[in-house]
Inverse folding.
């Protein structure tokens, strides 16, 4: 038995080495830096300090963190509401299935940044949507589609919708159709079959989609950058600015760690509610 | 006689231009245990699924208790199905699985509890209400699937090879339990299987299907002893098929020429002189000896091998036309035959079943 473990570690050693070098050590660096003292021009002075954490928990940054959680959460819920029916439709679309899945994936072939620029053309005050609505006399003033929390959430939904569709699709696809027949056989119509059988049995897919949508949505900074010109902030913006603009690596490191803990917590919630088999939906 | 519970009138089901079920006519009486028996792909499961409502017939009518249902959705039909894979809901415990149908019918909580408990008791699993289906053995899951169906008091219970996944011993036991359950509840059972022994054990009537059509409908004893087609004779149990032409008809008996020998056959099925026919003789009806029989049936053949299968020994002989016959004998009655030694085969003419070509 012991011998087998040793063999297993031997086989794993390349990936363990990789993970240690590029994941564990950098995270440790960040942890260490977050407890050092900030010097002039971003110098790191190796004296223990919790200044970075006091700053991170100050009302200014706490507000940004809560705002990020809140926006990412709303965007994730919107994604779920849009993605579930769509994933359901794909899973039941027979020979069109592969084509539709391809369409879901196509946006990944272009960088998110470029795709968001395309949205700016649509959503600008002089953009296509506002112009059309004003020409037709629906509105007098242009709608503030950008530079608003609504615009940020729209950007997040657009950017991460495929992350929600794919795991949900996969869980619906794997659902054994005889459960649905059994439900109908026992007197449940389509609606009640959906609520009592389909929904609970595809719940792992929903949860997986929730996690892999929420995690990037909370840390992304390009959406707020492009859609609000930096007027609205998410935690990603603050971290980047701390490192690159304010030259306060300690604060950046502390905020990064807090974000990581937040993500780990949501993963733990996922683990708590799913079985080993369901976790494959995350990959 | 009983009321017609299920009636199929000229029911046809097409999949991709082939008739999986082809102009099927069948009346099933209330309280009957009827088995649809046939090889895979014969249309038996499709027939069952049309009665359940999962498939709509391409043409024809299905009546349930006198009411036409072929366009009715499955959840509105008063039938319940026991699925081959059981299909117990994995996210519900046993109690909730069994209660599902009653909940959908908005039965009161107290009554649900009472009826579920009764159903679980009937399948001897009343202690298992809190378990998840995964935590039960195959046989227990099977019983829960039955409980989940019968708790709704369906007019008809449809069973799609429900015992297929169980091991032989458990299957034999469940066959009898199901039969007794059916008699106790007096519900019409429509049972689909490809296992002829299962069909013979449990059924009041058997419908033998092949290629979407009915080959024969009858009591188990009819199906076994008096098959009407070559397919039925071949499919049910083991049999020897001999092919020849009718040479003369004389009173109750006829004679058939077979591979250069003449044998007596019963004059059934209105055979005419000169007609080419098959006869089917069951292995257990035949006898073998190293000395000729003093009988009109005395086929000469050569001994090929004997196979001990427990209760009987199978003796395989080769006839002069190269075809083989199998004869079942009790092990203690067998003479010592050596390979290629001459052997004589005999049976009573009444044990031949004449099948038209």
């Amino acid at each position: 038995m012991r011998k087998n473990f040793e063999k297993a570690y031997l086989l794993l050693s390349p990936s363990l080495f990789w993970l240690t070098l590029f994941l564990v050590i950098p995270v440790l660096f960040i942890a260490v830096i977050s407890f050092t003292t900030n010097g002039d021009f971003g110098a790191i002075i190796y004296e223990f300090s919790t200044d970075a954490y006091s700053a991170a928990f100050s009302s200014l940054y706490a507000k940004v963190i809560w705002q990020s959680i809140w926006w990412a959460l709303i965007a994730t819920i919107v994604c779920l509401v849009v993605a579930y029916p769509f994933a359901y439709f794909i899973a039941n679309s027979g020979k069109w299935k592969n084509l539709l899945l391809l369409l879901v994936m196509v946006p990944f072939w272009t960088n998110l940044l470029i795709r968001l620029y395309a949205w700016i053309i649509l959503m600008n005050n002089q953009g296509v949507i506002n112009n059309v609505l004003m020409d037709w006399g629906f509105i007098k003033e242009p709608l503030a589609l950008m530079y608003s929390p609504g615009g940020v959430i729209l950007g997040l939904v657009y950017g991460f919708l495929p992350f929600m569709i794919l795991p949900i699709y996969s869980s619906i696809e794997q659902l054994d159709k005889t459960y649905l027949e059994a439900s109908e056989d026992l007197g449940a119509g389509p609606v009640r079959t959906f609520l009592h059988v389909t929904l609970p049995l595809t719940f792992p897919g929903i949860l997986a989609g929730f996690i892999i949508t929420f995690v990037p949505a909370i840390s992304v900074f390009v959406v707020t950058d492009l859609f609000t010109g930096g007027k609205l902030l998410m935690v990603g913006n603050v971290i980047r600015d701390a490192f690159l603009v304010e030259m306060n690596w300690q604060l950046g490191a502390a905020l990064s760690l807090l974000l990581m803990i937040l993500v780990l917590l949501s993963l733990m919630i996922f683990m708590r509610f799913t079985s080993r088999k369901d976790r494959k939906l995350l990959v | 006689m009983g009321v017609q519970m299920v009636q199929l009138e000229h029911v046809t089901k097409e999949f991709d231009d082939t008739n999986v079920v082809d102009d099927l006519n069948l009346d099933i009486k209330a309280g009957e245990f009827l088995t649809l028996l046939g090889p895979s792909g014969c249309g038996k499961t499709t027939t069952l699924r049309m009665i359940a409502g999962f498939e709509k017939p391409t043409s024809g009518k299905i009546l349930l208790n006198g009411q036409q249902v072929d366009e009715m959705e499955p959840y509105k039909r008063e039938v319940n199905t026991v699925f081959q894979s059981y299909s117990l809901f994995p996210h519900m415990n046993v109690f909730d699985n069994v209660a599902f149908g009653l909940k959908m019918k908005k039965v009161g909580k107290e009554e649900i509890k009472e009826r579920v408990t009764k159903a679980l008791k009937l399948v001897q699993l009343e202690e298992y209400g809190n378990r998840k289906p995964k935590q039960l053995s195959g046989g227990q899951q099977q019983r829960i699937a039955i409980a989940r169906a019968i708790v709704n008091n369906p007019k008809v219970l449809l069973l799609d090879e429900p015992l297929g996944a169980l091991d032989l011993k458990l299957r034999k036991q469940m066959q009898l339990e199901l039969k007794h359950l059916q008699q106790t509840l007096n519900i019409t059972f429509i049972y689909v299987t490809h296992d002829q022994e299962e069909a013979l054990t449990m059924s009041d009537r058997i419908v033998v299907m092949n290629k979407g059509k009915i080959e024969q409908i009858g009591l188990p004893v009819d199906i076994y002893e008096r098959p009407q087609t070559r397919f039925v004779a071949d499919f049910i149990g083991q049999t020897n098929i001999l092919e020849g032409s009718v040479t003369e008809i004389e009173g109750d008996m006829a004679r058939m020429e077979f591979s250069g020998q003449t044998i007596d056959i019963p004059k059934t099925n209105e055979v005419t002189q000169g007609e080419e026919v098959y006869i089917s003789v069951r292995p257990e009806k035949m006898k073998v000896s190293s000395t000729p029989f003093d009988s009109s049936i005395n086929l000469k053949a050569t001994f090929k091998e004997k196979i001990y299968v427990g209760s009987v020994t199978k003796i395989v002989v080769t006839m002069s036309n190269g075809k083989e016959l199998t004869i079942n004998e009790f092990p203690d009655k067998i003479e010592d035959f050596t390979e290629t030694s001459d052997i004589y085969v005999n049976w009573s003419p009444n044990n031949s079943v004449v099948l038209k070509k």
Q: What stands out?
A: The longest strand of chain A covers residues 37-38. The radius of gyration of chain A is 23 Å.
